[in-house]
């Protein structure tokens, strides 16, 4: 049922778009970012969100090639699991290359699961 609702939302969005309105050209940076977001949404299982996002962002039906995106972003993906989104690689690269914080946050008990990028419990929000 939720799949049908997502498709309806995407179609309603397309129907509401003014076809005569000329859309501004999307920059290469925005195209790359949209592809990173689409890959992350697919990885996270947000398929309904993808259908609406793809319609709103006017994404092509076929996602951009992962290697092409990585090359454009100067992201070395050798040894990087193909099942993990490139967005994680970019975020981790940023985290790993910045200098350590002078006052690191206190560590959480080892029994709590933590987010891959932050020392905090994973959020329970859905997209």
Automatic annotation (TrEMBL):
Alphabetical list of Pfam families matching this protein: FOP_dimer
Similarity section: Belongs to the CEP43 family.
Single GO biological process annotation from the record: microtubule anchoring
Keyword field: Cell projection, Cilium biogenesis/degradation, Cytoplasm, Cytoskeleton
FGFR1 oncogene partner (FOP) N-terminal dimerisation domain boundaries: 23-90
Organism in which the protein naturally occurs: Spizellomyces punctatus (strain DAOM BR117)
GO cellular component: microtubule organizing center
Gene3D superfamilies to which the protein is assigned, alphabetical: 1.20.960.40
Keyword Transferase set for record: no
Keyword presence, Zinc-finger: no
Name of the protein in its database record: FGFR1 oncogene partner (FOP) N-terminal dimerisation domain-containing protein
InterPro entries: FOP_dimerisation-dom_N, LisH
Compartments reported by the entry: Cytoplasm, Cytoskeleton, Cilium basal body; Cytoplasm, Cytoskeleton, Microtubule organizing center, Centrosome
Annotated stretches, region: Disordered: 96-127
Chief place of localization: cytoplasm
């Amino acid at each position: 049922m939720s799949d049908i609702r997502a498709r309806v939302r995407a179609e309603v969005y397309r129907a509401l778009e003014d076809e005569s309105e000329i859309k501004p050209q999307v920059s290469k940076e925005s195209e790359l970012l949209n592809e990173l977001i689409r890959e992350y949404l697919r990885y996270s299982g947000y398929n309904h969100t993808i259908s609406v996002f793809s319609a709103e962002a006017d994404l092509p039906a076929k996602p951009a090639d992962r290697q092409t995106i990585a090359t454009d972003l100067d992201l070395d993906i050798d040894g990087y699991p193909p099942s993990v989104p490139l967005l994680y690689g970019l975020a981790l690269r940023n985290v790993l290359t910045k200098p350590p914080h002078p006052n690191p946050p206190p560590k959480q008990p080892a029994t709590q699961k933590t987010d891959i990028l932050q020392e905090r419990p994973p959020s329970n929000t859905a997209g």
